[in-house]
Structure to design on (154 residues):
């Protein structure tokens, strides 16, 4: 009788330990995803700070017509960024309708550090180029920020 009870307790403890193992494994995976999500959000915010800096350093001539503003911004950002170590071989790209540019273009991302943080920005022309919508997405190890960061500039 004692041997049967001992075997039941051993079986019960084995089942409990498997349950705890499963619970811990799930918690570790959830925690890692949450950490990557937070790091991706930080990458997006860092990318927005980078874009603010680049946009603040543009030198748009005072007499530039509204319909030429976005083309001028594209040209100056291309001059400032293309060929830099941040962009590598990627470039600033304009879409076919000439109302959105992507930094960097294509499938490239700007790497931030050795931790795998990267960001990508799009700048959209609004109100005939007199307003810009800057969206920055961040990612870490393939996990992207859910919403990224967005600012409108007039």
């Amino acid at each position: 009788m004692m041997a049967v009870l001992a075997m039941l307790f051993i079986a019960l403890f084995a089942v409990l330990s498997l349950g705890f193992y499963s619970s811990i494994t799930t918690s570790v995976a959830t925690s890692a995803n949450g950490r990557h999500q937070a790091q991706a959000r930080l990458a997006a915010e860092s990318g927005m700070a980078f874009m603010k800096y680049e946009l603040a350093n543009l030198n748009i001539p005072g007499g530039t017509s509204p319909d030429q503003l976005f083309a001028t911004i594209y040209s100056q950002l291309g001059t400032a960024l293309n060929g830099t170590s941040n962009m590598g071989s990627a470039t600033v790209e304009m879409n076919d309708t000439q109302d959105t540019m992507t930094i960097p273009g294509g499938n490239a991302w700007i790497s931030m550090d050795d931790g795998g943080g990267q960001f990508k920005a799009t700048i959209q022309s609004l109100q005939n180029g007199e307003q810009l919508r800057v969206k920055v997405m961040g990612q870490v190890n393939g996990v992207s920020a859910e919403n990224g960061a967005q600012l409108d500039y007039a």
User: Anything to note?
Assistant: Residues 2 and 8 are 10 Å apart (CA to CA). Helices lie at 2-56, 69-81. Strands lie at 93-94, 100-103, 110-111, 117-126, 131-140, 143-144, 149-153. The chain has two helices and seven strands.
